[in-house]
Amino acid sequence: MSATVADVVTALERAYPPEYAEDWDAIGLVCGDPASPVDRVLVCVDPTEDTVSEALELGAGLIVAHHPLLLRGVHGVPADQPKGRLIHRMLLGGVALYCAHTNADSAVPGVSDALAEAIGLRVTGALRPHRGATAETPLLGLGRVGELARPEPFSRFVRRVADALPTTSWGVRASGDPERPIRRVAVSGGAGDGFLSTAAALGVDAYVTSDLRHHPASEHAALSTVPGGRAPALVDVAHWAGEWPWCGQAAEVVRTATQSTVEVHVSQRRTDPWNLHEPGDRSRT
């Protein structure tokens, strides 16, 4: 008997309970009939024109995305607007859309577990524990703290991160002493400069996240210049790249729950919005 959209959603919400989502988030089934049969699923970070096209080309009946399509309230979804056009394309093509966002961030395993695993960390705790965390669920929450098998110079660690994630025009940026030994690391998939002070308070050697802003990063780095100050070295990766490892994790959730009767694809299309990078060369002027 074929799996339905509802069957896949049930499996995903067992792995990523909706109650773990932040209050401001918009998760769940966005469009599609829960009773529709589904034999092919596409997992991606972003529901975009590219990933919807990929789903239609694959004949997928469901897209599982990390980022919400309708995070902010809307009053309509007309087809002459970007998000409305996506909704119409999916409905006309028989494609449902399900989004697991901050519930997938806080779950165990979740988005940051996938990032930590890709980098080669042994996870030891949550960066910001969820309000529902207990002694039995110490990893529940946003971000993760973990350890490398052995210390390595920061420059080598930055290369480790770059090698572990898909290539983007943004690349991997870093701030810190290239020779600093790195062993204990905090990671946060997605935008994480709100956790800079948390990472510093935990005394980790490095913090890997995305979308670090100039002033918070500069002020954070300055902590190391005051007597007794010690701030983690910073590694800033492209937002899409830092969350892409989760797609493989979510795909495995669906495969396991459906006993591999559903064909699950992880999108290989880069939906990072930045597509050009020019570091500049003043010697040419």
Automatic annotation (TrEMBL):
Keywords in alphabetical order:
Hydrolase, Metal-binding
The Gene Ontology terms for molecular function here are: hydrolase activity; metal ion binding
What cellular component GO annotations does this protein have? cytoplasm
Name one matching Pfam family. DUF34_NIF3
Q: Which InterPro entries match?
A: DUF34/NIF3, DUF34/NIF3_sf
Query: Which residues does the record give as a divalent metal cation binding sites?
Result: 66-67, 105, 239, 243
Q: Which Gene3D superfamilies match?
A: NIF3 (NGG1p interacting factor 3)-like
Give the record's subunit note. Answer: Homohexamer.
Instruction: Cite the PANTHER family for this sequence.
Output: GTP CYCLOHYDROLASE 1 TYPE 2 HOMOLOG, NGG1 INTERACTING FACTOR 3
The entry sums up its family as follows: Belongs to the GTP cyclohydrolase I type 2/NIF3 family.
Q: What is this protein called?
A: GTP cyclohydrolase 1 type 2 homolog
